[in-house]
Amino acid sequence: MQRMGMVIGLKPEKVAEYKRLHAAVWPEVLEMISACNIRNYSIFLKEPENLLFGYWEYHGTDFEADAARMAADPKTQEWWSVCMPCQEPLETRKEGEWWAMMEEVFHHE
Fold it and tell me: What is the domain-level CATH number for residue 24?
């Protein structure tokens, strides 16, 4: 199992909409997340900075393949087209990233 964290900005005028969307995530999107070996997925919001922190645990063996499978899913693409206009990627993210991936520097069980 691999723990993964990521961060992105949220446009101030989109906070309420983003919360509303995530209070009722489409079932097909949730099914695809599970099918791609992602568990314990959470998104946290830090206001007033409007930073979103995402965390999940990856239980598969090929994250790149599972991420590509998710990205190719039409319903997931539709979901992203609704959510992405709310988000504001960090200028410091790596090339090709939307959410900036984070390094795990501490864990305690």
Answer: 3.30.70.100
Q: What is the pTM of this model?
A: 0.91
Secondary element (H or E) of residue 65: helix 63-72
Query: Mind telling me the catalytic residues?
Result: 22
Using DSSP's 3-state secondary structure scheme, residue 49 falls into coil
Question: Which DSSP letter does residue 8 get?
Answer: E
Q: Is residue 107 part of a domain?
A: no
CB atoms within 10 A of CB 86: 21
Which residues fall within 8 angstroms of residue 38, CB to CB, at 6 or more apart?
A: 56, 57, 58, 59, 66
Residue 86 lies in a domain: yes
* Structure tokens belonging to residue 46: 């830090």
Read off the pLDDT of residues 46-98 as tens digits, 9 standing for 90 and up. 999 999 999 999 999 999 999 999 999 999 999 999 999 999 999 999 999 99
Bridging pattern class, strands 51-58 and 100-102? unpaired
